Amino acid sequence: MVAGSSLISRWLFPVIAALAVICVTAGPMQSTSWAQDEAAEPAAEPAAAAAAAPAADGAPATDDTAEAPKKLDALTWTMTALSYYFFIFLLISVIFVALFVMNMLNARRDNVVPLHLVESFEACLEENKVQDAYDLAKEDDTFLGKVLSAGLEKVSLGYDKALEAMQEVGEEENMKLDHRLSYLALIGSLSPMIGLFGTVDGMIRAFSVIALGGSTPNPAQLAEGISTALMTTLVGLAIAIPAIASYSILRNRVDRLALEVGITSEGLMSRFQTVGRK
User: Three-state DSSP class for 260?
Assistant: First the structure.
């Protein structure tokens, strides 16, 4: 799991930076396409007038040029409104789900304070098999196993040295869990900012239609920019709210389990209090 966390930390920030560049560059490109569409509309008017001329002379009008407006379903309209932000939010959503599952697995009691380790370790100490207890803790890759093995390595130097070693390893393991959780907090902070970026971008598109149109603006183009502004804000908040909530819940759970590791490990090692004392 540590390798997975380091892998995420390597490519998460470059991907976010690349997406930001896409946001900045794709906006002017889409604005250029709008300008081309607006320039093509006056050229289409003579053609429409020429097509309507036979109808004015008495010729029967055809229905080829009169197409019914296409109706979009909710998903298609959402993707259209989000524009290229759809792929940004999709990527963030996938990363959020992966991080949530990874942290949920890390915060399980069996991965932090396994009951079988506590029982086996205590049984070995009851039979005065310290080496077997050390081997048992050393082979266990959980939070508690690492703390107990660190304590037994230093127990020959005295109980106080063993406690110091246990505290150092406990702080290190707790920091690793907090480090993995911090990515959830990052997504919770980053998603609304991307939504705000999309809001400003969409409003600029809408006002550019008014500023560059020169006449009565096309309502469809106005609605396109406004829908992008509102939809990006909505999706950004929809991702941020569960990310922040899951971070808070998992953070409390990790703190509670870390405290339980400290209490359990000190209780198991309490029989060595007289070691190194005269």
Answer: helix
